[in-house]
Structures are given as structure tokens and as C-alpha cells.
Amino acid sequence: xxxxxxxxxxxxxxxxxxxxxxxxxxxxxxxxxxxxxxxxxxxxxxxxxxxxxxxxxxxxxxxxxxxxxxxxxxxxxxxxxxxxxxxxxxxxxxxxxxxxxxxxxxxxxxxxxxxxxxxxxxxxxxxxxxxxxxxxxxxxxxxxxxxxxxxxxxxxxxxxxxxxxxxxxxxxxxxxxxxxxxxxxxxxxxxxxxxxxxxxxxxxxxxxxxxxxxxxxxxxxxxxxxxxxxxxxxxxxxxxxxxxxxxxxxxxxxxxxxxxxxxxxxxxxxxxxxxxxxxxxxxxxxxxxxxxxxxxxxxxxxxxxxxxxxxxxxxxxxxxxxxxxxxxxxxxxxxxxxxxxxxxxxxxxxxxxxxxxxxxxxxxxxxxxxxxxxxxxxxxxxxxxxxxxxxxxxxxxxxxxxxxxxxxxxxxxxxxxxxxxxxxxxxxxxxxxxxxxxxxxxxxxxxxxxxxxxxxxxxxxxxxxxxxxxxxxxxxxxxxxxxxxxxxxxxxxxxxxxxxxxxxxxxxxxxxxxxxxxxxxxxxxxxxxxxxxxxxxxxxxxxxxxxxxxxxxxxxxxxxxxxxxxxxxxxxxxxxxxxxxxxxxxxxxxxxxxxxxxxxxxxxxxxxxxxxxxxxxxxxxxxxxxxxxxxxxxxxxxxxxxxxxxxxxxxxxxxxxxxxxxxxxxxxxxxxxxxxxxxxxxxxxxxxxxxxxxxxxxxxxxxxxxxxxxxxxxxxxxxxxxxxxxxxxxxxxxxxxxxxxxxxxxxxxxxxxxxxxxxxxxxxxxxxxxxxxxxxxxxxxxxxxxxxxxxxxxxxxxxxxxxxxxxxxxxxxxxxxxxxxxxxxxxxxxxxxxxxxxxxxxxxxxxxxxxxxxxxxxxxxxxxxxxxxxxxxxxxxxxxxxxxxxxxxxxxxxxxxxxxxxxxxxxxxxxxxxxxxxxxxxxxxxxxxxxxxxxx
Length: 936
Known about the structure:
This protein is an alpha/beta fold.
């Protein structure tokens, strides 16, 4: 699942100053966007940070729409209009309107002009009027929220699995062209309120026009503190050059990013026109930039990082760490000597002692999947695969620069064994070397903490398994020259290949100050298969398993390779899957039962047993849920993470029951997970639903006192994914229990959706009607209305669908996608109301909804619209004069007049207590339809 958010940052076009040149520049930006799309780079958002126009005139915004916005929508589809965000700059105002206002009065401490409330909005009206054409004609409707009581754009969006917060500010409220620097403010209270409105987002964008050093000095530090507390990315323009900088405040870090000017001078002039791409890799905590400028000699956009230091460069991107929260420094005096925690030191003498033969039970446990240790992996009882020689041969003692080798492969492919065996071979070739090996996968890598250890010797090999989460820290340590350490340090790392890539470690600039090599462990060679089978054969049927033991000796390796090839057609874990099928294909259930019976005898302080713990792990793994983190399992078991690792996971590893990556916990293989769940249900009479319910409730409760990274999964996604996999009753049980723990309207909406899709809409209606608050959320009311409609409560359905479309249901702007969905639902409902009551107003409203859907339909370059069939049928009826096609204004007027007329037909009191049928407006819907009309 992707954890990357891409955006295109544009600014400072000044449309109206030089129409031909500006139209040309806009055209070339759109062409660049099209080329990027072909190469696989499509923006999730386009952010335009002010100075769209030159003097804030309607005609200038019309040029902006004609030459930039319309072509972008033609390329990316009309839905993308909801993903374009604009804020005003100092050129987006009419300086002749209210030109005698006083900056000083607006920023006085006693001023109440920049609070997020109605009274302050009234005081700001004289400022709003100066931006009237910007708000009315820039075409990106979300910007109109800046003139609302709140004074800012506040929006939460989801890209893949990533929740994104977006705040748009007007830093140009007080601009008048005279001594603007250090005289401006977007309003501290407005910013604070807006940031509070984007909760639990993985990334927070704040858009403004001016750099923060242009803010009124008494306001600047509070603004920076608010940005730092949210680890925000502040995107702005104004200075017409590209830059980025990370700033630490007492509350945390924020990143300020300045885009070049979309147009600032004619071709060939002194100043170059440009823009900037951005990408946030949230899994790995990196922000990437690509600055482009127009090359007049070459007549194309060229990558232009002249203002960025090369130390930040990684290929075609410049990379910086994402802003981080501030943690209070520990000022306690440090002891002179600190014991290593989570690390151990090995020299060649130590390692050679671990090469002795294993006992039978140790070997069998390893063959069954027990976690390898140094004494197991290095034993002569365990064969060396070909990859070990490849890895160890990469390390040259005479190399001038540090060497980093990472061993990659699928889960349970044998990486850890190969990693440890490679460590021994490297020390055999360089006897002066010592190994510093990480023993705890969750232990961070800190060169500062390890420096005392490093200085005790002059030649180290650092060995780290599950290294994807510490790769950035390792690279930083290398790039800063080991923080002054004069000896040699090489690195031998291992990681799942998928984690190495998704974390961003694969794309780090490893070769800047080191030699770097990736070795991939995959496929099972004839030699490796033969060595593995011979090692099993030393223990007879116990080692080989019944199936292989019955085969002739010369066919056993072929059978193992057959299973390896068969398993490789699955998603991952092919190697260990082949081992399992070869040795336990016929008795895997017996193997699972025996394991559970042993673990049931080990009780934990919480009263649960290791059998219970393995049940939680297996339940998650069998459904391919990768969200069982150390923190989640520790919270459930009421243990600290170190105790979880030492008292639970280490024991499960010895039993070949469980394993982990740096972030998640799994069984050793999905085959084992499936066998465990079957045995738990059939032999232990376990109701497996409690595994999911207990985990979800535990995480929701834990989120009330600490941050839970995957909270959205536990609150919403786990039930949805169980439902989609066919486990509908289980999904609803999970959603019910989570809702009982946290009775929020978001969770009620999800639960109601599951009830409805299960065919139990009456229960959804009952829960909606008994909900005791009035949330500001369109989706809540529309889902409620759909459930009422399924129960044949047509008037309630229509009233709630209309309310979802209205301005009163939510302060944020209506999106095109939601407008289509709500109009479609209202249209269908009105059709049924007309059949039921034969009232012409319902037939007219159905046509009005379909008329608006016709305006809002997707353009021809996007996927087929869900509403296309409705629109097609409606068009035929219009052609046959059975229906009437209304214009935008008349259609919205008809919907507005229909809503109050629902009441005489009877509406449940519970609905009328929430929704006022007499006071709905549809300005947001009107803006959307008007903007789409202009595009067509």
C-alpha cells in the first residue's frame, strides 16, 4: 500500500501582465504535466500559492482558468478540480477598494478581526471586498472558505491509506504595497483553529503566499510554533525563487517550501520562470523536491537545482527529512560507561565456538522455522546457501570507503540465517574485524549512543536485520564521517525486499560516501536444495518428513524445488512455504495442534497464555493484515514492548510459531496461520471473532492516551476488509464493539454502511435515529438517508439527501464526487416519491437533479461515470420530451423549493429534530456546477 503523496507546487503567475507569454508558460506547464503522467508521476494535489492575477481583476482570472485550469481538468478529469487548492497573494486584490484601511489597527493586541467567528468575519468584510474577484472567479471553490467565519480553507483528504490535512491562509489580508514586510498576518487564532480542524493526519500542508519573515513580528513566533506543533509543510511563493528549509521550534519542526514563479518575465529575460514538484514518503519520513525552470535556449523545462545544495541530491530529486515532533532533551548526567542495550559484540573467536553440531531437537526446531540465533545459524549442521559466498566476497579490507551490503528477500526466505553466516565468513577473511550486531529489531540506530563502543576498537562490521527502519540513520552516520570516529565501519544489513522499497531505503543516496551493493535471495538452486535435504536426512523421518522420507534419495531435492516453484506463484514466503509443504504437507494441522497445546501451558501476567497470543497473531496473518505492531500487541497484553519481546516473542520464535519485521508481527508462514486458526476453531472450540474485537477495542482505547499510528485501520478498515472478504457477520461484530467503545458519528456511519450492505438497513435506521448529536458531516446524513430509503421511508431519504447537499450540513465545501453521489441518490428517491404521491414537484426535482448531473458529468478522458446510465436515460427522455433539462440556477431553485414540501407527507420526528427543512441553501453546489459549466 502506497505511503507517498505527490504534489505540484505553482505560484506567482501574474496573469494580465503579459497575456501571450503567460499563456505560453501555462501551456508548457500543462504539457510537462502530461509528460510526467506518461512517466508515472501524477499529482495527488496541485497547490497554487498566490499572485494568480496581476491586479486582482476578473479578466485576469478568466485567463488563468482558460490557459491553466481548464487544460489541467481536460488532462486529469473534472474530479481533479477538488484537488486544486489556491490562496491569494498581494497581487490578487483590488488596491482601489477600501484603500484607506489601517494595518496598524488590524494587528493591535486588542483587535478582534482575525478570530474564527462570525463577529470577526464581519470586521474582515472590508478586507474581503478587496479580494472579491479572486474569490468569485479563480475557479477553485475551496478558496471561498477563506472569506467564511473560519477565515481559512480547512480540508482533510485521503490518498490511498494516507490522511492528508490541508489549510489555506490569506497572508495578504493587510497588503497595500507599502512596507508590507513585517506588517502582515493570516491571523494567529485563525491558523490555530484551522490546524485543530485537521486531526490525526499523517501529513499537514499549510498554504500561504508570503514567507514567514514577512509576518508582523509579534505574530511570527506564534505562527511558527503552531506550524511546528503540527510538523506542517508550509508552501508559499512571493519571492519568485525556489527554496526549502527545516525549522525547529519549541513545539516541533516545520518545513517551509518556496516555489519559483510560474511567470515573472518574458523568455530570455534576466529572471527564469519555474515551478516545483514535491513528494512525501511518509513511511520513511522523507520529503523530495524537483525544481524546474524554463530554458529559453532549449525551449523546454529543465531540472534546476542551482539553489539547492548537492548534499541533498539523490538523482533527479533533492531529499530532506520530514518535520519531526520535538522531544524534551534528557539533561540528566550520563554515566561514563553505558551497557549496550539491544546490541551485542562478537569477534571471530566467539563465532567459531558457535559452529559445533546441533542437537537433534535444536535442528528439528530450526527446520520447523524457529528463529535462528548465532549458535544455530553458524552450526555445521546448517547448510550454507550460495548467497553467503556472494555477500562475503563483496567486503574488501583494503577498500578506501565504507562498504554497505544489504541482503534482500521475501519473508521467511532464509535471510537471517544467510546474514549471520555471512558475518562469520567476513570475519574469517578479516580477522581484525569485530561485529556489532543488533539483537532487538525495534532498537534504533544511533551513532552517538554507540560511539563509546565504536571507540573501543578500530575495525567494525555492523550487522542489522530488518534494517529498513534504520537505513536513514545508518546513511546519515556514514555521510557525517562517523561523527569523527577514525576507525573503519562497514555495514551488513538485511530486509524484506518489499519493506526496503516501501520504506524508501532503496532510493537513498547510498553511494555518495560509501560503496553499496544489494544482494537478492530468491529461488532455490539445485546446490542449495541438495544441501538442505542432506541436512534434513541426518535426522531420518523427523528431519525429512514422511513424504520426502519415502522418496528415493536422488529425488528429494527435486521435490523440494518443485514445492519452491509452486509456492513462488503466491505472494511471498516461497522458500519457507516449500520447506513446510515438503516436511509437513500431510501433518500441518497436527503440527499446529501440538504447538498450541505446548503454548497453552505458558501463562502471562494478564491471564492470557502464549496460545492466546499466537491466536491473535494467526488471526491477523491469515487475513493478510499487516497492522499488528509491537505497540498494539504489547497494549493488548498489558506489557511493555521490551517485556513483550523477551517474554513472549522470543518464546514464540523458539517454537517456530511467530516472527516479526521491524514494524509488524506475523506467524512464520501463512500456511501455519491458516492451520492454527482451523485447529483453534475445531479442536479448541475458539470463537476467532474475539481476536479481532479485542485487538480493535484495545487500540481504540489506547489511542485515548497515546498516538496509535494505524488507528484508522482499527476503527474502520479492519471491519471493511473483513466484510469484503465475505465475513460479514464478523465485520459487523467488530464494528459494533468499536462503536460501543467510541460512539463517534464516523464510526456510526461505517457501522450503518455495513448493516445496510448486509441487508439490515432497519438496524442502521434505528441507530441513526437514536444518535444524540448533530454532526457537521455530509456523509453521515447521506448514509442515513440511503438507509431510510431502503426501509421505504422516502420522505426521510429525500430530506436527508437534500441536507447532505446543503451548505448547512457541513462547513467545508462540497466536492464534485460527493455532489454526483448525493444528486444521484436524491434523483432516485424523488422518482419513487413521484410514483407514490403523484406530486409534480418530485418529478421536477428528479429532472433538476439529473440536469445538474449532466453538468457535473466526467469529461471523456476519465473513467466511465457511475451516473452515466442515469444521464443517458435522462437525455433520451429529454429528447422525447418526457423530461425537462433545466439550467443550473433553475435546477437548484427547484431542489430548494421541494425540500420544505416533504414535511406534509410525513417525516419521522427524530429526523425533523436534526434537519430543518425550511432553512437550506445550496451555494456550494451552485459554485461547483457553475465552475464545471465554464470548463465545458
